[in-house]
Amino acid sequence: MEKVSTGIEGLDKMLNGGLVPGRTYLVKGGPGSGKTTLATHFLSAGVASGERVMYITLEEPVDELEEEMSLFGFDVSKIEFIDAALSNNPQLNFPIHSNNSPSAENSPQRIVYPHLRCNLLNHVILLPC
Q1: CB–CB of 55/41 below 8 Å?
Q2: How confident is the model at residue 61 (pLDDT cuts 50, 70, 90)?
Q3: Contact at 8 Å (CB) between 27 and 123?
Q4: From the CA atom positions of the chain, what is the Rg in Å?
Q5: Who's near 28: CB < 8 A, 6+ residues apart?
Q6: Taking Cα atoms as reference points, which of 112, 126, 127, 110 lies closest to residue 48?
Q7: What is the mean pLDDT of residues 74-82?
């Protein structure tokens, strides 16, 4: 079965090679538990594999995310950031991913959709498309 790397060698080993493409993975934990760090490793592994990657933020400003990721040594220049906090954001008026789309080659292969809140727990959703 094909697997997609999380970007963390030890985690990939525990997961028998990584994540299964096409499935959605929910990562939850409190502030400072490593959700954004995991998401950054996941996207950086995609960039290293030549994939198009996207980080959709609902709360944290993009410039703060870029600065935080850069402090950890990640190259954020190839990560497409979308600030979804603004409801009139024109970037959100297109399908993010569709296998049947004529422009599927332009769709991201990895998406991170973080900071959803449910029952006061923070979540990160990893989508290896």
Answers
A1: no
A2: confident
A3: yes
A4: 14
A5: 35, 121, 122, 123, 124
A6: 110
A7: 91
**113 — pLDDT class (breaks 50, 70, 90):** confident
Cα distance between residue 105 and residue 86, in whole Å: 27
Residue 128's pLDDT is what?
72
Q: Which tokens hold the place of 126?
A: 């990893």
Residue 104, SS3 per DSSP: helix
Domains and CATH numbers, the chain: 9-86+107-128 (3.40.50.300)
Q: DSSP letters of 27-70?
A: EEE-TTSSHHHHHHHHHHHHHHTT--EEEEESSS-HHHHHHHHH
Give the full edge-to-edge strand order of the sheet including 25-29. Answer: 25-29, 121-128, 110-118, 53-57, 79-83
